[in-house]
Amino acid sequence: MEGILSLTSFLFIALFIVSLSIYYLVPGKYQWCILLVFSAVFFVLSCKPWTIIYVVLSTVTTRIVAVKLYDHRRDWDKKKLKHCLFCGISVNLGILCVLKYTNFFITNINFLVSLFNKSEIPLTKWASPIGISFYTLQIIGYILDVYWGIAEPEPGLLKTGLFIGYWPQLVSGPIARYNDMKEQLCSGHEFSWENVTFGLQRMMWGFFKSIVLSSRLKIMVDTIYGDTIRYNGFYIWIAAGMFMIQLYTNFSGCMDIVIGASECYGIVLPENFRTPFFSRSVQEYWQRWHITLGGIMRDYVLNPVLRSDAWRNLSKKVKGKFGRKAAVQIPSDLGMLIVWLLMGLWHGGDWKYVLGMGMWFWGCIVLARVSTPFTKKAVKLLGIRTDVFSWHLFQSLRVFFLVAVGNMFFRIESFTETLKTIKRGVTHWNPWILFDGSLYNLGVSDKEFRVVAGGLFLLMVVSVLQVKKGNVRKLIAKQNYVFRYLIYLLLTGAIIVFGTYGPGYDAQTFIYGNF
Q: What sections of 289-414 are H helices per DSSP?
């Protein structure tokens, strides 16, 4: 996806301002056309223009399949309906697999043939459309909703294309459901001062997280991971923690910009984050992080698997050998294993995602469930109170560490290199780097380091307010005029003064935009 148009670039901001102006100038019944036109423009500017043919093919296939599934739901037998469903899903998944996973399969085949001294297959170079992993999942959810009778198909081809390629969410989601979007995208919206101002405020918060915090954290993370032989021991764990925060400020900042831009149009997109660092278990963390992806995997993979005949038969066999409790838990754990392997594969065609991310998080969740009875006994035996802040803080720090380790597989170049890096982190002892000023030599100056520290403190305050008070923007809107606009001016000034721009600045392409 060469030439991706970053959501923090000036071109994106200009495109958004122009589109918003035209959007409210045209009659409401034509506003969806404006969104469609700017979706096409954004696509052409973001990647190789000719790759739009893949989106067109997906759109045409999706509409034909959805209409046929709906029109023939009564006069076709289940076998024909399933064949139609299979065609719709396989075409879209086939495009995704060819463009994204061909080299993954070729690499593994080459490894096998190399054992027999056979000639290797050359790798391919496919140009992928922007956001293909996101809109493919959105398409599959839409087709399955029509098949299950949850949704009625969109009769218009162009409106189907708008649902698939709606431009603010095209880069990195969130992954929306058709029933939640059909009326919003195609119905007219009157200008609302509150929607526009609240949307712009959220966009500013996203810019702050991305170009003030994430961009600086990236420099420090890249410095450590770029030379783990020199930066070993505690440096490794510092980088793991900083990458966690970098990833969060990067991805959630992206979501703030996307959701805020949509709010300006009067369109409400689903939330993708809910203060994940306050989670008290790994499972809860993934219920608060990338929420829409988790929902897609739960509703369209896990639940159908658990309801399938194969899993019901497995449950009966397990019950006969190990009892009723195991008959529920073992099939559920195996279903989650499938989900986590697919989650890993979705993030990229590499074993570091499948075995590293997928297996690590699945293992953490299963181990937590298995160890719960023992943990409760230990807590009771030691007289530890579990209804106090200190216990909650311990749980959140534990989750932070476990997720940080899992994300090392996401960030570091390969699965084996990740294992070597973890080894360098546990075989070297240098805690003094936390106190001797070494952290100021990670690619940023002490002033830049203080900007990050101040920004993270502000991020923490806002997160606490979100938990305690709910919508922070509404809380600010209730304040006196001077105080309210002082906050807006300070945030805008921080973005202008501390934002990273200029020659050599890669407009911080969003990490999840690569998917």
A: 291-297, 303-307, 309-322, 324-347, 351, 359-382, 389-411
Sequence-separated (6 or more) residues with CB below 8 Å from residue 191: 24
The DSSP code sequence of 361-379 is: HHHHHHHHHHHHHHHHHHH
Distance CA 392, CA 398 (A): 10
Q: Confirm if 342 and 304 have CB atoms less than 8 A apart.
A: no
Judge if the upstream peptide bond of residue 174 is cis by omega within 30 degrees of 0: yes
Query: What is the per-residue pLDDT across 13-42, written as a single tens digit (0 to 9) for each?
Result: 999 999 999 999 999 999 999 999 999 999
C-alpha triplet 428, 219, 345: angle, nearest 5°: 80
The rounded distance, in Å, linking the Cα atoms of 160 and 419 is 45
Residue with tokens 């702050």: 208
Average pLDDT, whole number, for the chain? 89
Comparing CA positions, the residue from 373, 371, 343 lying closest to residue 355 is 343
Please report, in angstroms and rounded to a whole number, the separation of the first and last CA atoms in the chain. 9
Can you give the pTM of this predicted structure? 0.91
